[in-house]
Structure formats: structure tokens, C-alpha cells
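User: Here's a chain of 406 residues. Predict its fold as C-alpha cells.
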Amino acid sequence: MKQAISLGVALTCLASAAFGGAAFAADKVVKVGVLTDGSGPYADVGGVGSQLAAQLAIDESGLAAKGWKVELIYADHLNKVDVGASLAREWFDQGKADVIVDTLNSGVALAVSQIVKDKNKVFLNSGAATSDLTGKACTPNQIHWTYDTYALANGTGKALTKAGGDSWYFITADYAFGKALERDTSAVVKANGGQVLGDVMAPLNNADFSSQLLQAQSSKAKVIGLANAGADSANAIKQAAEFGVTQSGQKLAALLIFLSDIHSIGLNVAQGLEFTATYYWDLNDGARAFAEKFAKKSRNAAKPTMVQAGVYSATLHYLKAVDALGSPADGAAVVAKMKALPTDDDAFGKGSIREDGRKIHPAYLLQVKTPAESKYPWDYAKVVATIPAEEAFRPLSQSECPLVKK
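Assistant: Prediction complete.
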């Protein structure tokens, strides 16, 4: 089910946080660009829901009352690196954006990252997972906000291996994200005494996982790791149920699964799956408060995904930094200010941003509820374990980021 917002869906839109008739100084204008998957396998994860999340942050920022004009634009990168890069250049060259948020595709994110650095703008990544964005591909112009492949591996991969799942076979999305997720999870599995028996690649937006599932079953691995996301994860999980994968004794590891995926799959099929997240809408009072604001404006009262919560949180903090500096013009300076200011919002609570651009907050190992355990709409998961903020992400001592002082 595709999420949509009441403002309507368009590839490019303009929204203003201004009060009607107010006059703004020329240097008190900031332009936010939401670049995301609006029509592909990750559309429910981000898409127009990310647009809504950014707008909620703009509305809450209070900048209009301080004389700022905040503009919001939105575009679908179609999960194509060249399209995403072209849109980023167009936005910056034509003065349409000071900051890009979301991206929801690691290949697109890595390309956008370099363009942002070259143009001295700001990149707030909420959707793309590759941990390289705070490693060898880090820059002084970007922040990796919500989660990454290291955190996913450190959560789900470690938990399942320690629980006896000491042999793995991966079904991996054949692009930067999937390869990074398999790489980081494999490292965790091996560090905890497990072994990786093999892998098979699957194209992005894959409808038929029968061949990959048969190879994974024949491997006899105790755990089949799904290094994919969005509609691809949903399709693989549904087809694994049809193949009787878990009934035959193998365990399915959804290394990256979102609230929208569980909603699509249904609890009958998804029940029991363990996954790692840094935001779940029913986690605490703050998370519920943001979810309620989001649901009031989302189609069918959909609750926000982790990515959409990250877009809200990152945009809100960015606007605080811009206001403190008095201008969005120098992107590196804005990011430096964001790192200097402590973070605090309903979705993620209090946190901080490290020198490598990694936003720090706790992660949670969650388990999908059974239909009998679910008591109200979107009541899909329960907390199995909390991973403290200082343990959730790659330690700075292991960082390949050139910004980190050794």
C-alpha cells in the first residue's frame, strides 16, 4: 500500500513555512530538497512520507516567526544513480536547494555525497544504509542520521549468531547497499564464531526470489540473511513462507525491514522475525507523539517508518543550526554547527553527532508480534533488547573517515 499525504503527490512541490503576507530578508531563505524513492521498492519507506516528515520539521522549527522563509522541494530519483546525481546538480546550480535529505538508495547517496561536497552544500542522509558514508566516503558536508549497515549487523547479525545461528547464507541486493550490509554482517558473524557458507545476488526491485531461495535452502545454512529492503524484503519473506523455509528448520534474518514492510507482509507471515531499528513509533512517549502528528496527515493514518522519522529529526536539527548561524550558505559551517549542538526531538530524544558525521542514538532489537499479541492498529513489534548509543555504531577507533583525528 503506497503511503500518500493529504497535500497530494507530485515530483516537485513547493511548500513554505511563511506566514501569509510576511516579508523576508533575502539572506533569510533556506531551501530543503527531499530526494527519495517516490515510485519504486522503497516508496513506502520514504517517498512522500519523507516529504511530510520534512514539512512537519519545518512547521515545528519556529523559523517563520523569526523572519525566515523555508521552502521545500521533492523529487523521485527512480533508484538510478545518474538521475539522482543530475537532480542534485540541478537543484544546487539553479539555487533550488541548500540541503538534500533522505536519498533511500546507497548508490544514489554516494554520488550525491560528492556533489554536495563539491558545491559546499549539506547532505542529511536518513534512508541510505551503507556505513561507508561515515567511513571512507565521509565528508565535512554530510551527516548519516538514522541507521547504517554496521548497526544492522551489530544488532540482528550478532543476536542471531549468538543464539545458535552460526552458519549463514545471504540473499543480497545487487548494489552498494546490499553488498555493504552483507559485508558488515559477515564480519559480525565471523567475529562471533559463525561462518558464511555463501551468497547469491538479486537485482533491485526483484519480483521472484524462487531461484535465490532454492540456493539458500540447499546451502543448509542455519540462517538465511536477507541483505535487501523495502518491497524486495517483503517479496522474499512472503515467498520464503510459501517455500516452507522456516518450517524446514532454517531461520530467516530480515537484516533491514521497516514498519511499512511488516504492514504489507502481515503478521501471519512476519510474526517472529527479529530486526534492528533506531526508531519504532510505539517505543516511548516521544516516538508516539511524533507518530501521532505524522499519522494525522498521512493517508490511512499510516505511522512513520524509521527513515521518515530520521528525515524529520535531521531536518529539524539542520534548521536549528541554520538559525544559529544566520545563513545556510556555507554548508560545511552548517554541518559543523550541527555537530556542536546537542540533538533533541520527539522521534529520537537526546543525542549527538560525531566528528565522522555519524548521528548517535540507541538501537533496538525488535521482534514482530503474533496476531494475538497485536492489540491496536500498527501494533507490530516488541523490544527484545536495547543497544546503547555508544555500542550501536562503528567505534571511532575503527573509522576510515579522514575527518577523524587518530
